[in-house]
Write a structure and sequence with these properties.
By secondary structure, the protein is mainly α. 64% of the residues lie in helices and 2% in strands. The structure holds zinc ion (2 copies). One zinc ion binds next to helix 4.
Length: 165
């Protein structure tokens, strides 16, 4: 593969993963996968969550892609590189910046702050119904997310923690 093909493959994998993460989070984690995702949405003081099992599953699929990719298809190997890169970005943003599992620094300005606000608003709902901001790297304006939460609450589509909106 040429460097252009490699770059395009990794980039499309990265972008595709944000789309995949959004869809999987909304329809799997907040759907039939709620049994594993639930403890991520409830307060606790444990170091690990059942929700971390999703990372194990996706990591295993990613590892299988490297194996098949190295044996049969170059592009699949590079596609897997994009997935790994996304995983690193995801965990730095989600587990690092938002949930403070790695460090305690909280961004006070810029896009990093917006990412944290957007995901905090994802955690503003109680239970699996409704909710906003299912992606992790692309975040909408927090004011718009708050307005959407309010609308969901008024329509009876979500249970929202009062302090959040
Ligand atoms: Zn969630
Ligand atoms: Zn979270």
């Amino acid at each position: 593969m040429s460097w252009l093909e490699i770059t395009l493959t990794v980039l499309s994998s990265l972008i595709g993963m944000e789309v995949f993460a959004w869809v999987a989070h909304k329809y799997i984690m907040h759907g039939w996968g709620w049994g594993w995702h639930r403890d991520h949405h409830e307060p606790h003081d444990k170091a690990l969550e059942k929700n971390d099992l999703f990372a194990v599953v996706f990591g295993t699929i990613n590892a299988a892609m490297y194996i098949y990719g190295s044996l049969y298809w170059d592009w699949l190997w590079w596609f897997a590189v994009g997935i790994t890169l996304y995983g690193v970005i995801y965990t730095l943003v989600h587990d690092g910046l938002v949930h403070q599992r790695y460090w305690r620094w909280v961004p006070r300005k810029g896009y990093a702050k917006r990412l944290v606000q957007a995901h905090k608003l994802h955690h503003a709902t109680i239970g699996k119904e409704g909710g906003v901001s299912f992606g992790f790297v692309i975040a909408r304006d927090p004011a718009k997310l708050k307005a959407e939460l309010k609308a969901q609450k008024e329509a009876g589509l979500a249970v929202v923690r009062d302090a959040q909106i």
